Amino acid sequence: MMLAFPEDELNPLKCSGRSKSKDEMNWNLNDVLGDYCLTLIDSLDALAILGDVKGFHKAINQVIKQVPNFNIDSRVQVFEVTIRILGGLISAHLLVTDTRLGFYDEDYNDQLLLLAIDLGNRLLPAFESPTGIPWPRVNLKKGRLPYETSSTCAAGAGTLILEFGMLSRLTGNPIYEEVARKALLEVWERKSPLGLIGNSLDMQSGAWLENVAYIGAGVDSIYEYFLKGYILFDDLEYFDMFSKSYSSVNTWVRDPNLYLFKNVDMETGDLLTYWVDSLSAFWPGLQVLAGDIDGAIISHQFLFTIWRKYHAFPERFDFNAKTPNIPSYPLRPELIESTYFLYQATKNPYYLHVGEQILEDINKYCRTLCGFAGLSNVLTKTKDDRMESFFLSETLKYLYLLFDTDNIFNKLDSNFVFTTEGHIFVPPPYFTQLNVIKSKVRDLSNATCQKFDHTKYILKYLDNQYNDTAVESTELIEEIEYNLMRTGHVVLPLPLKVIHEINSAVGISEEMDEFFHHVILPADATTSLYLNRGPISKSSDKKWFDLLPDLLKRGTSSSYDLDLLNSDLLKDNICLKTEEVAYPKDGSENNNFRKAFTYNNNRNYGEKIPNLQGSKYELLKKKNEQLLHNLKVTLPEGFQFDEEAKIIKTSTGYVTNTLKDVQLQLQKLVTDDFFLITKINNKLELKRNEVLKVKKRGIYWLLNEEESNAYRDQHIRPNKLEFEKILLEFAISNKIEKFGAGVAQFGSALLPGQVISGNLIPLLSNMNNINVSSQLSINDVSLGCEARDFINLQKLNLIKGNFILVRRGECAFQDKSLLVESFGGIGMIVLGLGLENKNKKKVITMEKLKGFKTELSILNFMLNYDDSMIILKNFEKKKLFEASLEYFCLPVKAIGESPPSNPLIPAQQITLRYSNFPIKNLVVVQSGVVSEKQVPCILPTKQHLKDPRRRSKAMSLLEFIFLGTGTSSNVPNISCLSKESPTCSTCISANLPLTEFEGESLEDVDDFNLSSKVTIKNTMRYGKNRRRNTMGLLRYQKRNGEIKNILIDAGKTFYNAALEWFPFYKLRNIDAVLLTHGHCDAFLGLDDLRGWTHRGSIQDTVEIFCNQDTYKVVQEAFPYLVDTQKSTGGGDVPNVKFNFFEEEKPFLLFDELLVEPIKVVHGKKNKNEAYYNVAFKFNDFFYCADANEIPNLSRDRLKDVKAAVIDCLNFETHLSHFGYNQSLSEILKFPNIERGYFTGFSHSVDQIDMNLKLIEEESLKNRKVRVRAAFDGLKIIL
């Protein structure tokens, strides 16, 4: 920026800027450079990934100021400007507008998106060709020049779909995705009979000019975009293209040695050349994304060996002559990219060593006084005076991500992708389910496979190498576990003999292989089975060194044999095959069809497995094993049901009128005793806490014989018109007004009796000048045809989950609905305006537009003219952004009217089973969805715009009550008080009668001050040292004003704590129980929940939330809690329902409170394995009991914590608990902390003494943080 800005690149030797060449035919420069701040735009998202948020925002403003538009007289390559400039703009726009990631800038106003639109429009003329394949170059100001060449490459034509597709999704304009998709399909349709894609072709005729097929320059990224297009857009046609092309490459391009990919004739498969190029080094990273980890490992080893030979990667390497063909190295990132993906997939520190080697080589041979220079010759290490923009955009970015294990993008659970230029595309929330253009998908019902089982290789390897006796040896079992667990040891990815074979193929002798001799292997290593692990560096003065795991440990490794890698095992992925359940005729002997489904097992359990009975490995394997079944429910012969399935999304999952012809994917963990529906019709996904509801009459043939015959005898053939009767209820002036509404012929429908509630939010025509001083007029409401209005409304967080009001006219109803759905709305309501000169009470039909290919899934209604005018006059004005702004809102309920002949019947749950196991999330009800109460409009606040995890701040965390602050032993301690002469002052004071506390509660007030120490000790000590197991109660107020009580842990002293503090604080219900871990001081009190559920004395059931590990311990301790049939006769047991969460994956309580489980360490199970506990984060409140370490990986998620409860066993350190100094240090690690509370004390801690020590802590005074030792009964206001 100091030496080259605003020019396109840096000259690292001259320390000056570089821009386009005056010679228009200098394609080497002008294909990329265009006087548009190339390097700055290309590296925008790199600043965000590196954590420089201020620099990221500053760079965006520099781009906005320096590049007002792309009306530039520059002839550029369409491919290069798309991946570098268009991708850079879109990536930065996605990051700066996404409130979830920490890069949000509220002052940003879509300027980068507008630049992207301008650039996209200037690239569109390139697609005006007879084939649809774009011209390779275009002039940004003049369009396509008349003398433009028609020769292009497959990658240049096919590697546009991510950038152009994302531009369509962000703008609502499908043209960009349409042209890029057509270009990709045109190239794909020209593949050879072998399924191979050539290098270059004539874009006017479509004829191939170069028929060489391989994975390097000219064709590389088209394979990449096949797979990434599927990942990002969830489009199976891209997956189809990738799977077919990947199979063809493995068949014809990959050499039998598995590590080399050759250049072959696309028509015959014959070898054409003897070189590989540097761009092909991206391939192992793509293999990782495809799930072919083992293929990635061996191909990466070959490519890294080339790097090790030259300490750089030549543009071309002749594997026959074992010498560079083109010796230059322009700082390319592809090998580093693959190294990063392999480390993310395997967590094998070997790849950190690889990254260190590459980093040191670049630093040694490419660094200059003012930057980094490419090498013109890797043999002589002669520098070239050019630093291409991808060095910052990709090379350094992937290196940084490799070592920054705590980076947010290394933990992000999303279908984000890196483009071929390394730009990160994180789909915004409103985009995830959008599919602007539906693919013409062939039958891909067998295309979805189970996750590849990595352990099969190791098991077969062991079968080939050892007999059963050897496998049973302790050392070998530990070795197997070691490989499977992938601990922090450096494990050679391949046997040494394979590595030596690759070394020989590249031309590296064992003597000159300094990487393995000095970094990985000790001098006495003689086999590939037992390897010492050396340190990653002789010095630790690197900034990233502390981020690396401990590499000094020893371990053992058995890996793969080449014969094994070359086996058919890669073909053993078990695909889910669609199955139509064949039901016998009614009355046949086999009547199992009434249980709903026939058992079908797609897994092959006949494979030979080493004898590891009773080992930890077997348990680990079973724990992670999944049974997946795909089946289609069909009507048996003799049964009739006239309705087609209508599946509608709801807040709790999906609802449907029938399961007839519905395809279900069922999943069951081996350790579960139930199945879960995970997919409906191969596209609708159910999360673990969601349900599919179906009407009883819609599955009547699956009921018992008596019920199904009763339904069949009624010959019910419902009138389809009954499904089109809709009522809209609006809360106007404290009254419920009902209006009839017309239903669109597209989108979803409501079942009779089904109710969907939400807020109606008007889309305004002028979102930049919102005026709520007067009531809405007709012209204030937008037509809903432009994406811009939706983008501005989405910034206010007012679309997702709401009904959106638009005006009739200008564009098709389906276009309006598509935009509403794209931005996350649950429904569209259209004002019936323009009918005032006709029948004002008439509603016209919103017909389905012919040729409109996108399948819409939201609700769509239209009001008549009279009702529209009433609605406009009665919108409420609600405060937004903490009273600095107001907006319009109106509560609405959409109700599917019930047919008069079939009134609603109260809900009745029926359990369907599959293979003798219940389907847990399939709910059969007698009526439709039970109606919900109308709730008032509540608009978002400023805080939860910045961070969607804080959206529940619009509701309220009220208070937290400490039900227990002791250990599993409690205080007082029996060993102290049973002495002849007790001396433990803490236990003595804890056994004295409770002091009468002033006021009605024990609220946290600053009652400790230095001037009254003696008084405090004499008067406030009683009772505060009496401690039960560590527990707490969080109180939370929902949107509708209802208060919920959330119990965190129920230890063995829970019931006594409840007897004391529930009446004191006027508590009664327990609405949820969160369990932190499977120790008795956390769950043994669950049995006492019978006091709440016995005969419905307080409530019918208690919901319990825990992870699978804790559930198993509870199941062993209280089998009757999990299965009431295991209780003894006559005994009343607690009625509880278990729900499971996964560590590090947030979940919702009561459909609105976000709970974030945080994985923390609570001692060790054994010498090498930690025991993990779960802490919980609720908005800006953090609760962490029973812990001795909070991993750094969790720190980013805790930055906004303002109040924290932290474990503190005593004043000394402990193996499984924080001590005083550690607890204090943990509190101060929260950057925004305001107050903290210690809990979990042993009897060696006097509560008053600890508080007096805390008062005098200088570190707390300097930060103005208030920390106190908690006590049983303390209530803190949140």
UniProtKB/TrEMBL annotation:
Occurrences of domain Metallo-beta-lactamase (ranges): 1045-1224
EC number: 3.2.1.-
Active site, UniProt feature: 80 (proton donor), 220, 315 (proton donor), 334
Binding site for Ca(2+): 420
InterPro entries xref list: 6hp_glycosidase-like_sf, EDEM1/2/3, Glyco_hydro_47, Metallo-B-lactamas, PA_dom_sf, PA_domain, RibonucZ/Hydroxyglut_hydro, Seven-hairpin_glycosidases
Compartments reported by the entry: Endoplasmic reticulum
Source species, domain of life: Eukaryota
Keywords assigned: Calcium, Endoplasmic reticulum, Glycoprotein, Glycosidase, Hydrolase, Metal-binding
Predominant localisation class: endoplasmic reticulum
GO cellular component, one term: membrane
Residue stretches making up the PA domain: 782-835
SUPFAM superfamilies, sorted: Metallo-hydrolase/oxidoreductase (SSF56281), PA domain (SSF52025), Seven-hairpin glycosidases (SSF48225)
Cofactor or coenzyme needed: Ca(2+)
Biological processes per GO annotation: carbohydrate metabolic process; endoplasmic reticulum mannose trimming; ERAD pathway
Gene Ontology molecular function terms on file: calcium ion binding; mannosyl-oligosaccharide 1,2-alpha-mannosidase activity
Family according to the record: Belongs to the glycosyl hydrolase 47 family.
Protein name as it appears in the record: alpha-1,2-Mannosidase
Biological source species: Clydaea vesicula
